[in-house]
């Protein structure tokens, strides 16, 4: 397949990560996380976030989000999130199935949710007839590619604390957010009041593997049982650990995210030169959202695939990856101009 803008998980494995996998693929190692590779990766996370965190590796992003949330929510609880949140839109009914609780969604125009909107949904506390709000879940970056500022996260955390709620962050693309903010991971997660973090690697050059990080250790007390029950305990965990150790040690995460973010900005600059298309969201990370005339989209998708985000208004999502090249973007812009000139 030619280079696409479909998703950053369409890309392959970064060479440094593949080398780490090959190095780990020698001899025997204890299974289920009791190996040196997993221990080294956990040590790296502690260097980034603090010695007293708890770290658990899982296989995929759905597992990271749903199981992380299950440590905080019970079947009678509610999880407040954006109507576009991955847990609402792209993880089927996994949250409801595994936790049994309700998702309380907020409309959004930029992917973000805001304190006054959240407070309006915290209703009928201590009323046994009503689902009790217990967790606020935000995505960083959001599903619209926008990035919460540290102050925005702190204000949401303040609401959570006021009402004795937890704050969860879906960080499937957290590296892109860190580069976009030019801040350390810790500054906009733990220091900003996040309680549980899903830390993604697959969308930024890893083959598989995500991490769940607990900043409140009491929430992790029984998590090893939750992970096993949730079918996310990877037997050959050294291959997740080896990837994360390489990912964090050489700042592979940062170089990959910086590249994909810069390619998104380059793509946006190219598209802004085309009057017939309209960029709809700030380009804070590695995604560009743009309105393209509907009649040319199917032809354009045959050249370099991308997803239509909002069919009603012909809004497309174009994702850049660690391996996106300027020539891929220039080819896309050239084909777009050609198709528009033929209208």
Strand content: 15-25%
Q: Tell me the number of structural domains.
A: 2
CATH fold-level topology of the largest domain: Aspartate Aminotransferase, domain 2
Element-by-element helix/strand order? HHEHEHHEHEHEHEEHHHEEHEEH
Structural class, judged by helices and strands? alpha/beta
- CATH H-level name of the largest domain... which superfamily? Type I PLP-dependent aspartate aminotransferase-like (Major domain)
Q: What low-confidence regions span 5 or more consecutive residues with pLDDT below 50?
A: none
| Backbone shape | globular
Question: What attributes does this structure have?
Answer:
343 residues, alpha/beta, Aspartate Aminotransferase, domain 1, 2 domains, seven-stranded mixed beta sheet, 11 strands, 39% helix
List the helices and strands and how they pair.
Layout: H1 15-24, H2 36-49, E1 54-58, H3 61-70, E2 77-82, H4 86-89, H5 94-99, E3 102-106, H6 115-121, E4 132-139, H7 150-162, E5 166-171, H8 174-181, E6 196-200, E7 210-214, H9 223-229, H10 238-249, H11 252-272, E8 278-279, E9 287-291, H12 297-303, E10 307-310, E11 315-319, H13 326-341
Parallel strand pairs: 2-3, 2-4, 4-5, 5-6
Antiparallel strand pairs: 1-7, 6-7, 8-9, 9-11, 10-11
Helix pairs in contact: 1-10, 2-10, 8-11, 11-13
